[in-house]
Specification:
The chain is of the alpha+beta class and 151 residues long. It has a single domain (12-145), classed as Roll (Nuclear Transport Factor 2, Chain: A). Helix content is 39%, strand content 30%. It has 5 helices and 5 strands. A 5-stranded mixed beta sheet has the order 1-5-4-3-2, sandwiched between helices. The longest helix is centred in the N-terminal third of the chain and has 29 residues, at 12-40. The protein is globular, with a radius of gyration of 18 Å.
Length: 151
């Protein structure tokens, strides 16, 4: 009797691999959509990516600055109205999280650094929507938060 080929009905490992590949594909598509929404500065496009209870805050905040979709969108809009602009340089899929690398202009710190400051945001995804956003000034700290301390 010969063993079943990989991916056959009895192959539990293949089923898990297929699920991981599907998740990776969905996360890749979500990463593309996040990038497009942030680059376009379209609040409606970003809103549809956020869970209704999405939060945004600083690393380790016990009580995030924003605790729902409307507050997150209002925070982004306030920054935009104040002249803050962000250019997305990269969105990396890290399991169930996205690491967004940004060049931010129009902030006091950015102006002190010659016009721009590098920032990173870690977006946690659940059921296809962003449920948490944490902002970082340091890439190593962002990677550690995303579960990749070696990053």
């Amino acid at each position: 009797m010969t063993p079943d080929p990989p991916g056959a009905v009895g192959d539990a490992g293949a089923v898990e691999d297929a699920g991981a590949m599907e998740d990776a594909g969905a996360m890749g598509e979500l990463a593309r959509r996040v990038r497009a929404a942030l680059e376009s500065a379209d609040p409606a496009a970003f809103a549809e990516l956020l869970d209704p209870d999405a939060s945004w805050g600083a690393p380790g905040a016990r009580r995030p600055t924003c605790r729902n979709r409307d507050q997150v969108l209002a925070w982004y809009l306030r920054g935009r109205e104040a002249g803050v602009r962000a250019e997305v340089s990269d969105v990396t899929v890290l399991g169930r999280r996205l690491l967004v690398a940004l060049t931010v202009r129009g902030t006091e710190e950015g102006n002190q650094r010659g016009g721009a400051a590098l920032r990173w945001q870690v977006l946690t995804v659940r059921h296809g929507h962003v449920v948490d956003i944490v902002g970082f000034d340091d890439r190593v700290e962002a990677m550690a938060h995303a579960g990749r301390p070696d990053g």
